[in-house]
Amino acid sequence: MPAAAHRRTRTSRLARKLAVAGTGIAVLALPVIGATSASAATPTVATATSLGYSNTLDGWIRASLQVMAQNGIPGSYDGIYRNIIRESSGNPYAINNWDSNAAAGTPSKGLLQVIDPTFQAYHVSGTSWDPYDPVANITAACNYAAQRYGSIDNVWGAY
Questions:
Q1: Angle of helix 57-70 versus helix 134-149 axis, rounded to 10
Q2: Which tens digit of pLDDT belongs to each residue from 21-79?
Q3: H/E element, 95
Q4: pTM over 0.85
Q5: Which of 13, 27, 81, 142 shows its CA 20 to 30 Å from the CA of 116?
Q6: Dist CA 2 CA 87 (whole Å)
Q7: Is 114 helix (H, G, I), strand (E, B) or coil?
Q8: What is the distance between the alpha carbons of residues 87 and 48, in angstroms, rounded to a whole number?
Q9: How does DSSP classify residue 44?
Q10: Which residues contact 109 (CB under 8 A, 6 or more apart)?
Q11: Alpha carbon distance 71, 101 (integer Å)
Q12: What is the pLDDT of residues 71-105, one digit of tens each?
């Protein structure tokens, strides 16, 4: 009887070692499997370059117009360009730290000088959530202008 008990213990020990080793391998494989699945599920964010345009003011406007067309947001190249030049001179990192919005703690940002609450409320799906991202900033601002004024083309001053 003692020999059989010894054999079971030895077999049990071997089974436990194999189970632990198998679990270790599975745990090591999880980050690889998870990364592959997560990468595949992460949606692509529309940028000028991802849509085939140059990473310049011209490309940002053209990419935004493409996203706007897909979402039924009106606006023209000329209307967007005119407002960008007035608001930020084409600097996607422009920030207004001196007006009433800034004094209230929400400075205007980006190409079309959008405050964070407006950017978040009028954000267009498929674009970045970064208000300094040129395509996201233009598209959200044009979405806001469309809701408020009918189109960015109808905006001729601060809005």
A1: 50
A2: 454 444 344 344 444 444 455 678 999 999 999 999 999 999 999 999 999 999 999 99
A3: strand 95-96
A4: no
A5: 81
A6: 89
A7: strand
A8: 20
A9: P
A10: 94, 95, 96, 115, 116, 119, 131, 132, 137
A11: 28
A12: 999 999 999 999 999 999 999 999 999 999 999 99
Helix (H) / strand (E) containing 96 = strand 95-96
**Sign, Cα dihedral of 47, 159, 77, 143:** positive
Continuous segment of H or E residues that includes residue 108: strand 108-109
Write out the two tokens for 105: 């703690």
Q: Where are the beta strands (DSSP E) in 90-135?
A: 95-96, 108-109
Burial class (CB in 10 A: 0-12, 13-18, 19+), 109: buried
Interaxial angle between packed helices 77-88 and 134-149, expressed in degrees from 0 to 180 and rounded to the nearest 10: 110
Quote the CA–CA distance of 123 and 154 in Å, as a whole number. 20
Distance CA 111, CA 92 (A): 5
- What does residue 132 show for φ and ψ, rounded to 5 degrees? -90, -10
Distances (CA, A) of 26 to 16, 20, 33, 78, 136: 15, 10, 10, 57, 40
Site of tokens 């980050």: 31
> Which element (helix H / strand E) includes 109?
strand 108-109
In angstroms, what CA-CA distances link 122 with 29, 56, 94, 140, 149?
41, 23, 19, 5, 14
